[in-house]
Amino acid sequence: MGERTEQVITLSLPSSMQQAYLLKVVVAEILKETDFAEDTQEQSNRAAIEAGTNANKNDNRTGQNTYTTFKLTLTDDQLTIDTVTDSDAFKHKPSETERALELSLPSSMQHVYLLDVVVTEILRDTDFPEEVREQINLAAIEAGTNAIKHGNKEDPNKRAIILFCLDDDKLTIIIEDEGDGFTRKEVADPLDPENLLKSSGRGIFLMEACMDSVTYEADGTIIKMVKYKEIVS
To answer: Which domains are present in the chain?
Structure first.
């Protein structure tokens, strides 16, 4: 018998019906990539609905803005969902005015599509113009890909953590990996004629072109990107 594989994806959300919907979307996307039997998929979908609904009920009962972490454990033949309610859910603490959401992924390129799904759903409820949404989505995908592929080197024992903080005037995205880091100034400029045929540096260039601010912390293992909303006078 082959070794049983297990991959854990975590999603920390504010306890609300809107975020319960996001959990359903993420679970549905995960199931699309599996070959589970139809009844197993139905069970997983029901579990997602129940977990999201229970989280919302708990929030309404306590009268507090709590966060729920959904632990999605994917094996060869099933997807299980466990929940933990915790007001201190995030490693990088959002401010009191920010609405936060955190996604933690195993270091496998096969999970990058989930980042795309989450970013798309977050931006759907904002007033960023469509063109700006596309820029944010591109920057987030590039940052997540860099964290998994170049930072963690697709080591299954390491994780990429992506935190989204939505404020009235901006969206902040913080991406952290468990790699050795890098120095920004040592990354080759892809627009330099001698680097035009090289692929290295293009992801960082795109991130910096798409976002209003990109900073590098903790020796490059943490990237903070900010996109400001347009001020309409």
So the answer is: 6-228 (3.30.565.10)
126, 134, 171 from 137: Cα distances, Å: 13, 5, 12
Q: Measure the CA–CA gap between 138 and 172, rounded to whole angstroms.
A: 14
Tens digit of pLDDT for each residue in 42-95? 999 999 988 888 877 766 555 456 788 999 999 998 999 998 766 556 666 777
**Token pair 């998994």: residue:** 148
Contact 46, 34 (CB under 8 A): no
For residue range 182-210, list pLDDT tens digits in order.
887 776 565 555 544 455 557 788 899 99
Buried/exposed code over 38-64 (b: 16+ C-beta within 10 A; e: otherwise): eeebeebeebbeebbeebbeebeeeee
Answer whether 112's CB lies under 8 Å from 175's CB: no
pLDDT given at position 135: 97
Nearest to 179 by CA among 223, 138, 210, 135: 223
Task: Give the β-pairing of 222-228 and 213-217.
Answer: antiparallel
